[in-house]
Amino acid sequence: NSLHTILTRSFLVEPSDWLVLVIELLLLLVVALLSFHRSAIFFTLGTIGVAGAYVFLAALLVFKSNTLLPVIRPLLMVFFALITLHIASAVKNAHTHAATQRAREVAERDLEIGREIQSGFFPPTLPSSDGWDITATFKPARQVAGDFYDLFWLDNQKTIGMVIADVCDKGVGAALFMALIRSLIRAFSIQDFEQSCSRHDAPEDCRQTSLLNTIRQTNNYIANTHGDTGMFATLFLGALDTQTGTLQYVNCGHEPPLVICQTEISAQLKPTGPALGMMPDLEYQVALIQLHPGDTLFAYTDGLTDAQDPSGDLFGRNRLMAYLQKPANDTKKLVEDLVQAVKSHITGAEPFDDLTMVAVRRESDKG
Questions:
Q1: Sheet holding 295-300, edge to edge
Q2: Average pLDDT, stretch 238-251?
Q3: CA 325, CA 258: separation in Å to the nearest integer?
Q4: Whole-angstrom distance, CA of residue 133 vs CA of residue 360
């Protein structure tokens, strides 16, 4: 102050303690406001900018109006405020991360329980009959899935009920609908098969009535009870006579299963009605096809053809057809080769959709 007086012939004026206190509080307020920004880098650089602006203002006031603002204490306050807020933010982030981690562990544990429960809906063993080779596989894209298959006996090990389905959407909601539809289909088909066969002498009439009743009851229940959810499922339900090789089926908007004769696609079992659960009282029809010795019925969900590589290229129906036309001695090799082909196609990318396949081959004529 004395040196400045000698050089400029004027005294430096120092602000009052109250004014200094107000300035310091304003600096702290600005730093506190900057701390609300999500970026720690922005907060730090902003605080440094505020400190620099204050130093510049203090220097300017000295030369322009002979006013001497305190610098050391306000800068120390800004610095300690910066450190304190960073520590508080780190502690908060640590608590948030810990809470998120606990919630994730709970969710993963619940999903794992759901996966174990869902796995119980798949048949532990597939029906076995002389002259028939049956293989099925299920590869979920997530811990729980909306795809499912089911194969079960309908009467004294003569008729096999076959189901493959794909519930719209993914995740927990689709898994819950999968469990519901699977239970309805199995319960209605077994019950209706027994009732229909007690009224019809012809096996084909019995199976046709049972298939239609099963599909209609399931569709109406879903549409009337859960229609507000907007959920539905594509589904293929068949009744295979293991004595004669005849297959009666209803295809509810599902990907057409393919019949392979030697190395050629001899038939495609196209939809005979709309997807399940869209509207009540929909019309469905039963179709019939004959499986001859050497024929293979291959059913799948769109997770097979829609599998994408990192560039977005789909596995596609043409590539599937090429694999199905290769010689295969058994259904297990056919399914395993396709699973490996899909893995090779996506080249390490995460699966986009669930993958389900069912293959049934008639090895010899037992009828």
A1: 132-139, 355-362, 295-300, 258-261, 264-268
A2: 95
A3: 11
A4: 6
